[in-house]
Amino acid sequence: MHERRDVYGKRNDVLxxxxxxxxxxxxxxxxxAKYPAVIVERELSIGGRMAKFDKTFPTxxxxxxxxxxxxxxxxxxxxxxxxxxxxxxxxxxxxxxxxVRIRKKAxxxxxxxxxxxxxxxxxCPVKVSSEFDMGMGKRTAIYVxxxxxxxxxxxxxxxxxxWFTKKTCGICRKVCSLGAIDYEMKDxxxxxxxxxxxxxxx
Length: 202
Hints:
Elements: E1 14-17, H1 21-32, E2 37-40, H2 63-76, E3 80-83, E4 86-94, E5 97-104, H3 119-123, E6 127-129, E7 138-140, E8 142-143, E9 155-156, H4 162-166, H5 171-175, E10 188-194, E11 196-199
Parallel strand pairs: 1-2, 1-11, 2-3
Antiparallel strand pairs: 4-5, 5-10, 6-7, 8-9
Helix pairs in contact: 1-2
């Protein structure tokens, strides 16, 4: 991300905390001004609660029809950077010059290698309740939250994965022909500077 400053020397980079519909729309609006924006979302995918809705009130418009194009738009926008499965560690500084530490949690899948083919999901033997389906459906220990997820890259639930709980299985790594599964992946701390922060956590 390239640092930009206005005529007063203030940074133009904007941090958006939360990748739901509000955070996504904020990033789109900021990109129109050609300012860099960074979305930090704690889940594996952006989309937030609206991704779980069928229709929106009061017009009863299709929620996915509104949300999905915006998700794709920010993912492909050169002014927007996505940090999914990430959380804010600390914020210091002042308006116009914030220093923010971001923890990118280890998803155990290399996002640069993974193509989202789904082979690992199909072979995973573990089934647990799906948070996205409010516990009414099942998902595997390596999973993508929902079909239209952005990025469309799975993550491993280490609390239920047999490799992390019993040091057995390892099927997902065996079936991944691209070598995207990384059980040794660690959390990463990155530090970036911003001029403004938008809190869009819902």
